[in-house]
Each structure stands twice: as structure tokens, then as C-alpha cells.
Amino acid sequence: MPEGAPLSAPAADMNPAAAALNDPGLKAAERRIRLLMRLLGIAATGLAGVFFGWRAAFGAAAGAILAEWHLRWIGRQVDRWMIQPITQAARNAPAVPGAALPAPAGYKKLLGWLRWLILAGVLYATLKVAWLPPLAVLAGFSSLAGGVMLEAGYLLTQYLRHNL
Asked: What is the mean pLDDT of the chain?
């Protein structure tokens, strides 16, 4: 099943969990998190460049790119391990691991399984070589956590505004 493809109406009616996958509020929250994460990464890069120079800006940009890559990998794995079995159960199809999503190409699969090793290698190289300031890389990588926290604050204010 392609990423983001809606379920057919009968499949969504059979299983409430499958219907929840197509919730427009959930998809909108995911889009806002990605947007906020990118904006925070750009802001961190710009501020690091203005106050600490081009090496810090490059470090913040590298951290933000790693955060984006990390979030994409997590999304793909959640689709593969969690959502795919729900949609197959909703369609009364036999659960065949990896049947709905094509297996990634060799280098993508290798990068997927070794993502923690790659992240640790970048961190080690940053600290050992000291070419990129470690705090700048951490600031860029923290854009993911910042985006999630801003989205949580937005959802909380929306809830309080409509329910109080």
C-alpha cells in the first residue's frame, strides 16, 4: 500500500483502528510537525551563522538534516510494522510481512538498519575532529523535539480554547 493512500470505505468500516489511520486531524498534525521541524532547523542554522560563524551554521544544518532523515526512517518503519498489519486485517487479507510495501533497495535497507550507527558516527566525528561545533549539531538535531513540543502546545491551546 503506498504511503498516505486512503483505505477503501468497506475496509475502514470493518476496523475502527483502520478508520483512525485516515483521520484528517492526525495527518494535519504530522504535516505541522514536519513544517515546524524544518522551520526550527532553518532558524537554528541562521542564528548559528549570525552569532557563531559558518562552521556553526553548517553544523546546525547537518543536525537538522539528520533529524529529518531520522523522522522519515521512523515513519517508514511505523508504516511497515504497525499500520500495514492493521490495513491487511481490515481487508481480511493474510498478513504477509513486507507484501504491501516493497522492500527498499539494498543501500536504503542498509542505511535504514544502520541509522543508529550512522548517527553515532556523525556524533563521534563531530566530537573527535571538532570541525563542526557539537552544540550546533545538537541544536539542529533538536529541531525534531522542538517541532513536537510546539505541536503539542498548539493542540493543547486548541483543546482549551474549544472546551473551556
From this structure: 76
